């Protein structure tokens, strides 16, 4: 089945933080490779081959989608995104449990309405490239837009949140971005019981799990930030909450620059390389071992 939608003039390419690398090899199948050891020796420069978890097969009929979505709709079974997507203001796209969304290379989505990803533990939702060894682009959450996701497994793409955009992730895992996975210049991020990255001894070519500038509102708790070149480039934000998180397998866990004052609380977390320091950083009651109440449940 093919769902024909009006094509909109939007590039689908998000904004990447200055100075951040881009992985030139996409998630694919095969040997998972190696990342860092739990002592904190991490992955490399963002040009890591990024050998990924392989492709998740879809079930049921395949629906092709592209263009502007003007009315509420539900995605289910297998969705093939063949062209750039725009979700209009006031419109909700609901992704049903167990849905596999395959996205063509360089294609992205602009969310001006709501993207509601409703996976459950027994039927996770998958967002992945439509072909091995490729990347799709990103999901841009613009002014007034919102994304909510539970039990999402995502590879091969990224997010850009700006202005008053809102993103909420619970029990979700994201990895294998073509550069930075979660980029913010504004907006709101609420993430809990989730993971950006992989476990040790798996390979992920993501450059920054998070790259933050401007004045966003950030809550990332009971989550795992792992196996990238940078866990976070934290260049903007005040009163950010990063408590009860695990940080391991990154080359650098937290980068803060004096030119960009920030305030963030990293307390009650585990850092394989030691707790972050610097102006505006709070890190107390740190755990000597991984926080058990963190990551996908």
Topology:
Blueprint: E1 62-69, E2 73-75, E3 78-87, E4 92-95, E5 100-103, E6 109-111, E7 114-118, E8 125-129, E9 138-141, E10 146-150, E11 152-155, E12 158-161, E13 166-170, E14 173-175, E15 180-184, E16 188-192, E17 195-196, E18 208-212, E19 217-221, E20 224-226, E21 230-234, E22 240-241, E23 246-248, E24 252-255, E25 264-265, E26 270-271, E27 281-282
Parallel strand pairs: 1-3, 2-4, 3-5, 3-6, 4-7, 5-8, 6-9, 7-10, 8-11, 9-12, 10-13, 11-14, 12-15, 13-16, 14-17, 15-18, 16-19, 17-20, 18-21, 20-23, 21-24, 22-25, 23-26, 25-27
Walkthrough of the structure:
This protein has 297 residues and is mainly beta. The N terminus is likely disordered. The protein contains no helices and 27 strands. The chain is 0% helix and 38% strand.
**Coarse morphology:** globular
Number of helices: 0
Spans where pLDDT lies below 50 across 5 or more residues: 2-19, 21-51
Summarize the main sheet.
17 strands, parallel
Straight-line N-to-C gap = 35 Å
- Find the structural class using helix and strand composition: mainly beta
Order of helices and strands: EEEEEEEEEEEEEEEEEEEEEEEEEEE
